[in-house]
Design goal:
Elements (H helix, E strand, L loop, with lengths): L12 E4 L5 E8 L6 H5 L13 E7 L4 E7 L3 E3 L11 H4 E3 L5 E3 L6
Antiparallel strand pairs: 1-2, 1-5, 2-3, 3-4, 6-7
GO molecular function: DNA binding
InterPro entries: Clp_protease_adapter_ClpF, Hemimethylated_DNA-bd_dom, Hemimethylated_DNA-bd_sf
Organism: Rhizobium tropici
Amino acid sequence: MKQRNAKFNIGDVVRHRMFPFRGVIFDVDPEFANTEEWWNSIPAEVRPEKDQPFYHLLAENDETEYVAYVSEQNLINDESGAPLRNPQIAQIFDQAPTGQFKPKMSFAH
């Protein structure tokens, strides 16, 4: 299996290619690292390959805030500049004047 470099970084704001949610990346798995049960809950016609980076997002949609686990192929950069409201973001990140999210030192690996 070939090792791929992650396209997105911790602190990047992204949105899902097909579903109406967006969020900030707080962790990256180089390849799928969730349960088979989770994997099998994805409809086969949209189930992504496992051999790609997967991202943990502090995500939100119009109704709620939550944590999402999303394959690289299903994410695109969010260029909207709209503010994010997930309350966990402020616990993990500092936001630079440029709008970039930087992990707080206590969470840095």
